[in-house]
């Protein structure tokens, strides 16, 4: 009966594009037709139309050595010129590129001409510090314009940026600096978050004490006005170095496959992977999807993606896609609830935002607060909403469309990953009928399949593993310094098909529903965390003997980190209060990895459920963490163990 009702609801909840929207839409059915007729010609055409090539390419794809793809590889371009100079040369220099809003309420409007000049100065300053093509520069900044300027200045020089989210700890920053052997770090004294200044430069100082010593210079933006220590031989202020550098900078063109950035993301092992992206293909797909999935009309839209540049969404849909398309966008430094819970909606009203791109976890937390908060603001400029990072449940989708979008505007749910570089599955607004809860269809030029473990296509509604069957322009080109891990992680399972690590099913209309990760990667508030990484942090604490971490479903954050820890018997004498021990371990993980990794709960237990071969059965721990009846325990070495653990947890 319930299944029937669900099904009926699903049937009802399908939304045709409005004729008015469709009439002005950027995308049309022709995109699908063109891509189906000749996928490579389609991408070549997009690359030529959307980008400026200093040297045009003649080869579209070289897939002779899978999984190492080369796109447009005999062409040359400069990514920063594509995002900046060419718009100024086209007479759009006075268009606002960034409406920046600081958390304390300060703001700056920066035009394309101003942004171009600032990037040229920063490129000159970095070149003076010895940064050359191919060198790595770590960027550890709050969401301030200098973050975007830094990324583009590095790109302009053909150097490689590695942006590290400002919430990561000194240890996490140090391991990323070491892995990439960065020669320069760009940071700020501090930034604003939840009404306070959080220090960044002191974290960099601490991190550099732990690295192998590749970093020669630290360039520091003054933002928080907090006290910082200074090393005259190493540290430079941005306002003294960049502001005084020349605003003239002749950009050099680089090959399409020239590396653009490394971005670290969690995998199934304890060590984050440095995902490598290159220039021409990446920028093509970022620009194409930004234009068509968000129906961008650059001359009139005000676009706002709420992601931080520390994540892939910030790379592709704050920096590269929007700027390549000449968009006007909002960036905001702080948290959604500072100084009041309507801050985001106040920003939408202030700048007349027309396109909003955010994560389900944010939508769900606004839902909890109630519609009266957004209703205090004028949100009528909004005409398109986007979602990314995790499955959006139909209730949140409907709430987003009604309460934020006023009831009739398109909501696009976009599936993609750090590795895919750009959106892979999404409706096209004005073209596709929308279905809440489903990410829907591959974007034109992308081929997706759902396979079982043996690589056989799953027919009908049964779930399987999501794979990308053909190379795509913005695909990762490897894992920094570890080609073997690249092959093993993504390509070993299905040969020359890319294994995404997500479960999915197709419904009878051919729409794709994402079912969550099939590996040990958790998704907390749209951020990827690995169980292994948090377990190794927990066992690094002197009190811990053993630890198991699971991602338990959570109403607001999607999943939450729940840890089960056995303390060392040698510690039993000092650690008498389990509540205190659990608090200490939560704090420890936050310090070691970053606040986003802090477990929601740490349960101190005497045993962990293991199979006869010694493998921890996380499935059973997840049952406990989610308050469910514990599942089948027959494969446990000792079947009574779950009772003991349950008693300790409750
Ligand atoms: C999940 C974020 C369902 C998925 C851009 C993927 C999603 C992981 C969606 C990548 C979506 C992202 N629906 N799940 N629309 N978007 N995911 O690398 O599990 O931070 O593998 O990239 O997030 O996370 P990442």
Automatic annotation (TrEMBL):
Domain AMP-dependent synthetase/ligase span(s) in chain numbering: 91-480
PROSITE patterns: AMP_BINDING (PS00455)
Lineage top rank: taxon: Bacteria
EC number: 6.2.1.1
Positions bound to ATP: 389-391, 413-418, 502, 517, 528
Residues with N6-acetyllysine modification: 615
Posttranslational modification: Acetylated. Deacetylation by the SIR2-homolog deacetylase activates the enzyme.
InterPro entries for the chain: Ac_CoA_lig (IPR011904), ACAS_N (IPR032387), AMP-bd_C (IPR025110), AMP-bd_C_sf (IPR045851), AMP-binding_CS (IPR020845), AMP-dep_synth/lig_dom (IPR000873), ANL_N_sf (IPR042099)
Domain called AMP-binding enzyme C-terminal: residue spans: 533-615
Keywords: Acetylation, ATP-binding, Ligase, Magnesium, Metal-binding, Nucleotide-binding
Annotated residues for binding of CoA: 193-196, 313, 525
Residues bound to Mg(2+): 539, 541
Catalysed reaction, written as an equation: acetate + ATP + CoA = acetyl-CoA + AMP + diphosphate
GO MF annotations in UniProt: ligase activity
SUPFAM superfamilies named in the record: Acetyl-CoA synthetase-like
Role according to the record: Catalyzes the conversion of acetate into acetyl-CoA (AcCoA), an essential intermediate at the junction of anabolic and catabolic pathways. AcsA undergoes a two-step reaction. In the first half reaction, AcsA combines acetate with ATP to form acetyl-adenylate (AcAMP) intermediate. In the second half reaction, it can then transfer the acetyl group from AcAMP to the sulfhydryl group of CoA, forming the product AcCoA.
Family: Belongs to the ATP-dependent AMP-binding enzyme family.
PANTHER family attached to this UniProt entry: ACETYL-COENZYME A SYNTHETASE, ACETYL-COENZYME A SYNTHETASE 1
Name of the protein described by the UniProt record: Acetyl-coenzyme A synthetase
Gene this chain is encoded by: acs
């Amino acid at each position: 009966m319930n299944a029937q009702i669900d099904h009926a609801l699903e049937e009802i909840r399908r939304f045709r594009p409005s004729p008015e929207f469709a009439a002005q839409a950027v995308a049309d059915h022709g995109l699908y037709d063109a891509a189906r007729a000749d996928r490579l010609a389609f991408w070549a055409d997009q690359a030529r139309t959307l980008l400026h090539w200093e040297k045009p390419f003649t080869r579209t794809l070289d897939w002779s050595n899978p999984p190492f793809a080369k796109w447009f590889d005999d062409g040359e371009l400069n990514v920063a010129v594509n995002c900046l100079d060419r718009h100024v040369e086209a007479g759009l220099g006075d268009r606002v590129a960034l409406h920046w809003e600081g958390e304390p309420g300060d703001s700056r409007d920066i035009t394309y001409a101003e942004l171009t000049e600032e990037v040229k100065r920063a490129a000159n300053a970095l070149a003076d510090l010895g940064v050359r093509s191919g060198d790595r520069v770590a960027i550890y900044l709050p969401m301030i314009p200098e973050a975007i300027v830094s990324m583009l200045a590095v790109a302009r020089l053909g150097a490689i940026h590695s942006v590290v989210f400002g919430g990561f700890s000194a240890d996490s920053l140090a391991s990323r600096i070491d892995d990439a052997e960065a020669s320069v770090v760009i940071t700020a004294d501090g930034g604003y978050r939840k009404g306070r200044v959080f220090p960044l430069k002191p974290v960099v100082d601490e991190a550099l004490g732990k690295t192998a010593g590749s970093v020669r210079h630290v360039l520091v933006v003054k933002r928080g006005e907090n006290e910082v220590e200074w090393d005259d031989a190493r540290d430079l202020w941005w306002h003294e170095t960049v502001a005084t550098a020349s605003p003239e900078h002749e950009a050099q063109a680089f090959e399409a496959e020239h590396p653009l950035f490394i971005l670290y993301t969690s995998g199934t092992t304890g060590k984050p992977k440095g995902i490598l992206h290159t220039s021409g293909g990446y920028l093509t797909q970022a620009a194409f999807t930004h234009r068509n999935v968000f129906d961008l009309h650059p001359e009139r839209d005000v676009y706002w993606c709420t992601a931080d540049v520390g994540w892939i969404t910030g790379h592709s849909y704050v920096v590269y896609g929007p700027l390549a398309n000449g968009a006007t966008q909002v960036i905001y430094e702080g948290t959604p609830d500072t100084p009041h819970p309507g801050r985001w909606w106040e920003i939408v009203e202030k700048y007349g935002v027309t396109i909003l791109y955010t994560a389900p976890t944010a939508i769900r937390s606004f839902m909890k607060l109630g519609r009266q908060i957004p209703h205090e603001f004028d949100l009528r400029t909004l005409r398109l909403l986007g979602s990314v990072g995790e499955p959006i449940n139909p209730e949140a989708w409907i709430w987003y469309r009604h309460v934020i979008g006023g009831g009739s505007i398109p909501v696009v749910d976009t599936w993609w990953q750090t590795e895919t570089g750009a959106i892979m599955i999404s409706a096209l607004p004005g073209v596709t009928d929308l279905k809440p809860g489903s990410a829907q269809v591959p974007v034109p030029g992308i081929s997706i399949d759902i396979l079982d473990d043996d690589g056989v296509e799953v027919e009908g509604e049964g779930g399987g593993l999501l794979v990308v069957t053909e190379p795509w322009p913005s695909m990762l080109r490897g894992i920094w310094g570890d080609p073997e891990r690249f092959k093993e992680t993504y390509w070993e399972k299905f040969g020359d098909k890319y294994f995404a690590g997500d479960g999915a099913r197709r419904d009878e209309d051919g729409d794709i529903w994402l079912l969550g990760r099939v590996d040990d990667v958790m998704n907390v508030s749209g951020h990827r965390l690995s169980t292994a990484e948090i377990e190794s942090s927990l066992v690094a604490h002197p009190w811990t003997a053993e630890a198991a971490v699971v991602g338990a479903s959570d109403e607001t954050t999607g999943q939450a980190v729940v840890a089960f820890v056995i303390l060392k018997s040698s510690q039993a004498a000092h650690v008498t209060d389990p509540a205190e021990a659990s608090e200490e371990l939560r704090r420890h993980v936050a310090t070691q990895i970053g606040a986003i990794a802090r477990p929601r709960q740490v349960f101190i237990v005497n045993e962990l459920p293991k199979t006869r071969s010694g493998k921890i059965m996380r499935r059973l721990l997840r049952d406990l963490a989610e308050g469910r009846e514990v599942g089948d325990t027959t494969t446990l070495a000792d079947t009574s163990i779950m009772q003991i653990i349950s008693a300790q947890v409750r």
